[in-house]
Amino acid sequence: MLGFTASMIFIPAVSITAQWYYERRGLASGVVFTAGSVAGIVLPICMRRLFVQIGFPWTIRVVGFILMFCLVIGNLLLRPRIKPSKDLKGKIVDVSALKDIRFALLGTGIFFSDWALFGPLTYITSYSIAQGINADLSYYMVAFLNVGSCFGRVIPGMLADKLGPYVPDLACAEIDSTL
Fold first, then answer.
1. Number of C-alpha atoms within 13 angstroms, CB side, residue 135?
2. How far is Cα 89 from Cα 100, in angstroms, rounded to an integer?
3. Are 150 and 33 in contact (CB under 8 A)?
4. Does 105 reside within a domain?
5. Taking a C-beta distance cutoff of 8 angstroms, is the pair 64, 46 a contact?
6. pLDDT above 90: residue 54
7. Which candidate in 101, 143, 144, 146 could, as Cys together with 40 as Cys, close a disulfide (CB 3.0–4.6 Å)?
8. How much is the pTM?
9. Cβ-contact 3, 115 below 8 angstroms
10. Which of 49-53, 76-80, 94-98 has the lowest mean pLDDT?
11. What is d(CA 52, CA 37) in angstroms, rounded to the nearest whole number?
12. How many domains does the chain have?
């Protein structure tokens, strides 16, 4: 359920941000994407310290309260500029989008790339401890990776604003001709 609920929060935030910005849409989207990295820096450090002080059950509750506070603030601040299409009113998922082979392949590719990314990331702390790295330092490995991820989320957006967007129709021309 974590992936499903995270996508239900993430997708509206990204799409609403794109509605409000035209000139610097890439930078605005990069800043929104950076929130995940900031959480990936703050939460592991916070959790490591809270485990020792208040134990696992209350650590999870505290993190839940922090996330709930952030969600309330986000829900108060998000306002769509464009009204939803009347064709999609009441629908949670538009399955007809999967009829486009390019979209279906993109979704499949994103699924497997996320699987490849988050699988090893889940075990990096245990792997670090198994390799003999100090346990305190091992618990901060996820935070270290997210520091680099902050730059990797903002810089491509800035470059997209300067160089122009990636045009998938040109990239898919060869795929279309083979299908």
1. 3
2. 21
3. no
4. yes
5. no
6. yes
7. 146
8. 0.70
9. no
10. 94-98
11. 24
12. 1
Distances (CA, A) of 26 to 6, 57, 156, 165: 21, 39, 8, 9
Please give the structure tokens belonging to residue 75: 């829900």
Per-residue b/e over 21-50, b at no fewer than 16 CB within 10 Å?
A: eeeebbbbbbebbbeebebbbebbebbbeb
Convert the pLDDT of each residue in 132-159 to its tens digit.
Answer: 998 888 888 888 888 888 888 889 888 9
Query: What's the burial of 142, exposed, middle or buried (CB within 10 Å: 0-12/13-18/19+)?
Result: buried
Residue 44 has pLDDT above 70, yes or no: yes
Is residue 30 assigned to a domain?
yes
How many angstroms separate the CA atoms of 63 and 170, rounded? 44
Question: Does 87 map to a domain?
Answer: no
Per-residue tokens: 123: 């075990």
Q: What residue type is assigned to position 46 of the chain?
A: C
Residue 118 · residue 2 · CB < 8 Å: no
Helices (H), the chain: 2-20, 25-54, 56-77, 101-130, 135-138, 141-163, 168-171, 173-178
Would 58 be classed as within a structural domain?
Answer: yes
- Least Cα distance to 55 among 23, 31, 63, 91 occurs for 63
